[in-house]
């Protein structure tokens, strides 16, 4: 039994079957990659896991509890954090202020920026945010305005914001999209380290096969809303169905 169990999930948008009978089991403390061509339904699937979309049918269980019918916030409090396909940071705010938002959201579900100024009362949360920034080599950027950072650093900040919530399941939607090679390699190293050092399960949607093969323990290939094959990276590499559907051969 995986920490995440998706069973027979279907999702339609009008006449379009975005997900058709999706089954997915993600084992605890592994990294599971979901790959597939554009429009395959990868982001839709992720949205169904975090309560942003509700499947038409099927079940989604996290650690033995159903996530369906819960709000994104409640699902977040269950221990699932997510990095979106397009960065969702507050450009006007500093790195540290950005870090505060998910910390407070996880703890008491409220946006309480003023608490950052009133440091004494919230020392535990500030300590946690600072320790994640230190861990990710970003502590020297704590007062930087988020919008002035490089694309790679913005992505790193988003990952830091998720980690500050101490999630059990981290969901990443194309975390290296649009990144320069050096930033991509830094992100691979960072995720490898997170995986090795933390008690965390990672599900990652990723186009860059170098990233996928560097990180994944298992890979699910999604095509036209349906899992085509699920296997280890080595098996996936040589799979004829994958080459046909994904590499266009
Ligand atoms: P992927 O992330 O694999 O590229 P998506 O999950 O974003 O694919 O999209 C799967 C399909 O569903 C696509 O054909 C997309 O156009 C469609 N789709 C996604 N979201 C919506 C929506 N909110 N309304 C209508 N169609 C959508
Ligand atoms: Mg997508």
Automatic annotation (TrEMBL):
Keyword terms: ATP-binding, Nucleotide-binding, Transport
GO CC term, one of those recorded: plasma membrane
Domain ABC transporter: 4-249
Keyword Transport: yes
Stored CDD domains: ABC_Mj1267_LivG_branched
Keyword Transport: yes
MF term (GO), any: ATP binding
A Pfam family recorded for this sequence: BCA_ABC_TP_C
SMART domains: AAA
GO biological process: D-alanine transmembrane transport; L-alanine transport; L-isoleucine import across plasma membrane; L-valine import across plasma membrane
PANTHER family for the chain: AMINO ACID ABC TRANSPORTER ATP-BINDING PROTEIN, CONSERVED COMPONENT OF ABC TRANSPORTER FOR NATURAL AMINO ACIDS-RELATED
Name of the protein this chain belongs to: Amino acid/amide ABC transporter ATP-binding protein 1, HAAT family
């Amino acid at each position: 039994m995986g920490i995440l169990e998706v069973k027979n999930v279907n999702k339609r948008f009008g006449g379009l079957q975005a997900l058709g009978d999706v089954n997915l089991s993600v084992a605890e403390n592994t990294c599971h990659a979901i790959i597939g061509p554009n429009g395959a339904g990868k982001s839709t699937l992720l949205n169904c896991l975090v309560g942003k979309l509700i499947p038409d049918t099927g079940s989604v269980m996290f650690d033995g509890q159903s996530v369906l019918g819960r709000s994104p916030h409640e699902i977040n409090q269950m221990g699932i954090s997510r990095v979106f396909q397009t960065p969702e940071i507050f450009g006007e705010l500093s790195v540290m202020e950005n870090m505060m938002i998910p910390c407070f959201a996880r703890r008491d579900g409220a946006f309480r920026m003023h608490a950052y100024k009133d440091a004494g009362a919230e020392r535990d949360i500030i300590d946690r945010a600072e320790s994640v920034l230190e861990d990710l080599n970003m502590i020297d950027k704590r007062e930087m305005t988020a919008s002035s950072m490089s694309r790679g650093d913005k992505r790193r900040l988003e990952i830091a914001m998720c980690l500050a919530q101490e999630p059990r399941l981290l969901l990443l939607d194309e975390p290296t999209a649009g990144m320069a090679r050096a930033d991509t390699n830094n992100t691979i190293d960072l995720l490898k380290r997170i995986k090795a050092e933390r008690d965390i399960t990672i599900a990652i949607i990723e186009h860059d096969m170098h990233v996928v093969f560097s990180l994944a323990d298992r890979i699910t290939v999604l095509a036209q809303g349906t899992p085509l094959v699920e296997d280890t990276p080595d098996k996936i590499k040589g799979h004829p169905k994958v080459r046909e559907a994904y590499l266009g051969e």
